[in-house]
Amino acid sequence: MSEKQTGEGAGRRARLRAAVALTLFALLAAVLILYPPDDLYLWIKALHIIAVISWMSGLLYLPRLFVYHTDAPAGSAQSETFKVMERRLYRVIMQPAMGLAWLLGLYLAWSVYGFQGGWLHAKLAFVVLLTGVHQYYGRAVKAFAEDRNTKTGRQWRFWNEAPALLMILIVVLVVVKPF
């Protein structure tokens, strides 16, 4: 029989793997900044896109977990499994990815655009809203962990659309730069 992936040992190994991946990512970013190649902008942009994809994956998946968790009876094995999944997704993937997306994005906004441009200001406003959604999900993770969720599955389905809509607006602003 294989080891359960929701146990403390599996959680410790998952945290270690995530820490190693984040450390390698941070080391690559540091090397690029300390010893910049001719195409540093492209490297930073690539790392920013990787961080954004990781963050968005979590933002799109976590509310789906909430939908299913809402249907699980409090204290059941299924509910406890959802708690582990939600906590790990939020803390191990989403939090670091959001931090890196912000850090690298602000670097690009400053070094390439000098924080100039209406499209950039609008994009940053939408990213602030996306960060607000992220924080709202963090409070929900805590509420589910304490068996205090008050939202229905239907409400969480609605919340599942918020990051997708913001992502569309952000991508259009970055690519089209309409103003």
Would you give an account of this structure?
It is built from 5 helices and no strands. The protein has helices spanning 8-34, 40-71, 77-111, 118-145, 153-176. The protein starts with 7 loop residues before the first helix and ends with a helix. Helix 2 (40-71) packs antiparallel against helix 5. The radius of gyration is 18 Å and the shape is flat. Helices cover 82% and strands 0% of the residues. It is mainly α and 179 residues long. The mean pLDDT is 92.
Key terms:
mainly alpha
- Biggest β-sheet, characterized? none
Unreliable segments of 5+ consecutive residues? none
State the total count of DSSP E strands: 0
| Shape, per Cα inertia axes | flat
Helix residue percentage: over 70%
Query: What value does the average pLDDT take?
Result: 92
Tell me which oligomeric state these chains represent.
single chain
Number of helical stretches of at least 4 residues:
5
**What's the order of the H and E elements?**
HHHHH
Structure class: mainly alpha
Radius of gyration: 18 Å
Q: Report, as a whole number of angstroms, the end-to-end distance.
A: 59 Å
Task: Kindly estimate the percentage of residues that lie in beta strands according to DSSP.
Answer: under 5%
What's the helix and strand layout?
Blueprint: H1 8-34, H2 40-71, H3 77-111, H4 118-145, H5 153-176
Helix pairs in contact: 1-2, 1-3, 2-3, 2-4, 2-5, 3-4, 4-5
Outline of the structure:
Helices cover 82% and strands 0% of the residues. It is an all-alpha fold.
